[in-house]
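Final report, closing paragraph on structural work. Over the funding period we assembled a curated collection of sequence-structure pairs, and we close with a single example.
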Amino acid sequence: MNINTKKEYIKEVNIREIEAKSILRKYKKIESWFLTCYGMNLYRGCQHNCVYCDGRSEKYQVDGEFGEDVVVKINAIEVLRRELDPRRKRTPFKKGYVGVGGGVGDS
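Its predicted structure, as stored:
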Protein backbone atom coordinates (compact mmCIF):
# COMPACT_ATOMS: atom_id res chain seq x y z
CA MET A 1 0.00 0.00 0.00
CA ASN A 2 1.48 3.32 -1.06
CA ILE A 3 0.38 6.39 0.89
CA ASN A 4 1.40 9.70 -0.62
CA THR A 5 2.11 12.29 2.07
CA LYS A 6 3.50 15.07 -0.10
CA LYS A 7 2.64 18.51 1.21
CA GLU A 8 0.45 19.50 -1.76
CA TYR A 9 -2.03 16.75 -0.84
CA ILE A 10 -2.48 17.99 2.73
CA LYS A 11 -4.89 20.92 2.81
CA GLU A 12 -5.31 23.45 5.57
CA VAL A 13 -8.55 23.12 7.51
CA ASN A 14 -10.44 26.24 8.55
CA ILE A 15 -12.37 25.74 11.79
CA ARG A 16 -15.07 28.25 12.67
CA GLU A 17 -16.99 28.23 15.96
CA ILE A 18 -20.72 29.00 16.17
CA GLU A 19 -23.45 29.04 18.80
CA ALA A 20 -25.99 26.33 17.93
CA LYS A 21 -29.74 26.83 18.27
CA SER A 22 -30.44 23.09 18.33
CA ILE A 23 -28.54 19.82 18.32
CA LEU A 24 -31.12 17.02 18.16
CA ARG A 25 -32.96 16.38 14.92
CA LYS A 26 -36.08 14.18 14.98
CA TYR A 27 -36.53 11.98 11.91
CA LYS A 28 -39.96 11.65 10.33
CA LYS A 29 -39.50 7.88 10.31
CA ILE A 30 -36.92 5.54 11.76
CA GLU A 31 -33.71 5.75 9.73
CA SER A 32 -33.45 2.39 7.98
CA TRP A 33 -29.67 1.94 7.98
CA PHE A 34 -28.83 2.64 11.65
CA LEU A 35 -32.35 2.33 13.14
CA THR A 36 -32.17 5.77 14.72
CA CYS A 37 -35.10 8.05 15.57
CA TYR A 38 -32.97 11.12 16.20
CA GLY A 39 -29.75 12.54 14.84
CA MET A 40 -27.18 14.79 16.48
CA ASN A 41 -24.42 16.74 14.78
CA LEU A 42 -21.83 18.57 16.87
CA TYR A 43 -20.22 20.08 13.79
CA ARG A 44 -20.79 20.73 10.07
CA GLY A 45 -18.30 19.68 7.49
CA CYS A 46 -15.32 17.39 7.73
CA GLN A 47 -11.60 17.53 7.12
CA HIS A 48 -11.30 14.04 5.62
CA ASN A 49 -12.33 15.22 2.15
CA CYS A 50 -13.26 11.69 1.03
CA VAL A 51 -13.84 11.39 -2.72
CA TYR A 52 -16.82 9.04 -2.20
CA CYS A 53 -18.70 11.32 0.26
CA ASP A 54 -22.19 12.33 -0.85
CA GLY A 55 -21.72 15.51 1.18
CA ARG A 56 -19.55 16.81 -1.65
CA SER A 57 -22.57 17.09 -3.96
CA GLU A 58 -25.23 17.61 -1.30
CA LYS A 59 -23.12 20.17 0.62
CA TYR A 60 -25.07 19.45 3.85
CA GLN A 61 -25.16 23.15 4.68
CA VAL A 62 -21.37 23.38 4.66
CA ASP A 63 -20.34 26.99 4.17
CA GLY A 64 -17.17 27.45 2.16
CA GLU A 65 -15.00 24.82 0.49
CA PHE A 66 -15.99 21.22 1.09
CA GLY A 67 -13.24 19.28 2.89
CA GLU A 68 -11.51 22.44 4.06
CA ASP A 69 -14.10 24.31 6.14
CA VAL A 70 -15.52 22.90 9.39
CA VAL A 71 -18.03 24.59 11.69
CA VAL A 72 -18.00 23.50 15.35
CA LYS A 73 -21.01 24.04 17.61
CA ILE A 74 -19.28 25.23 20.77
CA ASN A 75 -22.37 25.29 23.00
CA ALA A 76 -23.51 21.77 22.04
CA ILE A 77 -23.50 20.36 25.59
CA GLU A 78 -25.66 23.17 27.00
CA VAL A 79 -28.12 23.01 24.08
CA LEU A 80 -28.37 19.21 24.30
CA ARG A 81 -28.94 19.39 28.06
CA ARG A 82 -31.78 21.88 27.44
CA GLU A 83 -33.31 19.76 24.65
CA LEU A 84 -33.27 16.59 26.76
CA ASP A 85 -34.76 18.25 29.86
CA PRO A 86 -38.14 16.50 30.36
CA ARG A 87 -39.58 19.56 32.12
CA ARG A 88 -39.26 21.61 28.91
CA LYS A 89 -40.91 19.07 26.58
CA ARG A 90 -44.64 18.98 26.00
CA THR A 91 -44.37 15.51 24.55
CA PRO A 92 -41.60 13.19 25.73
CA PHE A 93 -39.07 11.76 23.32
CA LYS A 94 -39.94 8.40 21.84
CA LYS A 95 -37.66 5.63 23.01
CA GLY A 96 -35.05 4.89 20.40
CA TYR A 97 -31.49 5.39 19.29
CA VAL A 98 -29.75 8.69 18.68
CA GLY A 99 -27.25 8.80 15.84
CA VAL A 100 -24.19 10.85 16.79
CA GLY A 101 -22.29 12.64 14.03
CA GLY A 102 -24.51 11.65 11.12
CA GLY A 103 -24.24 13.50 7.85
CA VAL A 104 -20.78 14.68 6.91
CA GLY A 105 -18.10 13.24 9.16
CA ASP A 106 -16.51 9.80 9.12
CA SER A 107 -14.85 10.27 12.48
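Residues 1-7 have pLDDT under 50 and may be disordered. The beta strands are 14-18, 24-26, 36-40, 43-44, 69-73, 97-100. We thank the funder for supporting this effort.
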